[in-house]
Design goal:
Length: about 240
């Protein structure tokens, strides 16, 4: 199993001129698979990572066996602040600034429905790491550009996200949190409309980061889903040959 720090985040490089789009990240994942000699793999992603996993499946269907998408950052349908976000320039991240530690910690805890499920020391580690990365110009550019691109991702129309989603070939499991305030489970209705073949479930009493808040349950879901995909693979290949 491999866990990636995408460019701009974690310990990876943070180029200030990178586009930080879903396509850019997906191509980075593909290149990483090439470098590691991985021809085809199951892919799981949370939030923006889920959006990147979907993009990888759309652009390189031959490289993805199955997808588990944990509260993925699908395209927003009601984009109230769209004009304002379009005007905001992530290049302003080149100017030194920082978020107050209390605000970062408040946002961290807002990702979870039940704080009792989270080790309090984790907040200190995550907040310290965010502050460290955001202190660099590259980290600020990556964060602001990525967030802007996610919000501006067109839901419909030419090259709209949901129309493209309907072309996803890999078996997919969407997992939502009932108390997710970032990507609410109401998005499941859009996924059901455009990708009815996908499996979906909502974890009751869970927030935006189920792999942390419900670690054991999520691990079980991934193992069972991917095992089932592997078991169906010969049948899927046979059906493809028959269709050809």
């Amino acid at each position: 199993m491999h866990a990636l720090d995408l460019p701009g985040f974690g310990a990876s490089s943070k180029p200030t001129t990178a586009p930080y789009t879903a396509r850019y990240f997906a191509e980075t994942v593909r290149a990483t698979m090439d470098a590691l000699g991985i021809g085809r793999a199951h892919v799981a992603g949370n939030s923006m990572g889920g959006r990147v996993a979907i993009e990888l499946g759309l652009r390189h269907p031959d490289r993805v066996a199955g997808l588990v998408l944990l509260c993925p950052a699908v395209a927003f349908v009601k984009r109230t602040y769209h004009p304002l976000v379009r005007l905001m320039r992530p290049e302003l991240g080149l100017l030194p600034h920082r978020f107050a530690r209390a605000k970062v910690e408040e946002h961290f805890w807002s990702l979870f429905a039940n704080r009792d499920e989270i080790d309090p020391s984790m907040a200190d580690v995550v907040v310290d790491e965010f502050q460290r990365i955001y202190a660099s110009a590259g980290g600020r550019i990556a964060f602001l550009t990525s967030a802007r691109n996610i919000y501006l991702d067109a839901p419909f129309g030419r090259n709209g996200f949901y129309g493209r989603l309907s072309q996803l070939e890999a078996p997919a499991l969407f997992v939502w949190g009932s108390h997710d305030t970032v990507i609410p489970p109401a998005f499941a209705s859009h996924v059901a409309r455009w990708l009815p073949s996908a499996e979906q479930l909502v974890l009751d009493g869970c927030g935006h980061v189920p792999q942390v808040e419900r670690a054991a349950q999520c691990s079980g879901l991934l193992e069972r889903f991917f095992a089932r995909v592997d078991g169906l693979a010969p049948l899927q290949v046979a059906r493809t040959r028959e269709a050809a």
